[in-house]
Amino acid sequence: MTSGSGAGYGDSPDPRARHAPTGYRSSVCSIPDAALGSLARAIDELAADSHDGATPAQVAERIARIWGMVTDLDPELARRRSGYEETADG
């Protein structure tokens, strides 16, 4: 690629821009369908129950349980979530 023709990925003069960002590596794509199905059902049940008069405490408890399911399925997300909670509390 010639200079001034619109640098492509890796052609940047800045060495930091030449490498793909590492980012978030989710393991969710390798999770068995049954586990994802259980999570989807729990979310659907929460949605239905929240419209059918569940108390705020019941909804909060269910959300916490669903987050537990999510973090069991994706340990990297669990690690990142703890960092977000520390930021929110601080």
Can you tell me about this structure?
- With 90 residues, the protein is an all-alpha fold.
- Helices cover 58% and strands 0% of the residues.
- It has a domain at 35-89.
- 0% of the residues are buried.
- Residues 1-9 have low confidence and may be disordered.
- The chain is globular.
- α1 packs antiparallel against α2 (56-73) and α2 crosses α3 (75-89).
Which tags fit this structure?
90 residues; mainly alpha; 3 helices; 58% helix; disordered N terminus
Summarize the helix and strand pattern as letters.
HHH
Rounded to an integer in angstroms, the radius of gyration calculated over CA atoms is: 21 Å
Q: How many helices in DSSP terms?
A: 3
Kindly state the percentage of residues in helix: 55-70%
Structural class: mainly alpha
Beta-strand segment tally? 0
Beta-strand level of the residues, as a percent range? under 5%
- Uncertain segments: 1-9
Strand count, sense and barrel status of the largest sheet are: none
Shape: globular
What is the average per-residue confidence, as pLDDT, rounded to a whole number?
A: 74
Intertermini distance: 48 Å
Describe the protein's topology.
Elements: H1 33-51, H2 56-73, H3 75-89
Helix pairs in contact: 1-2, 2-3
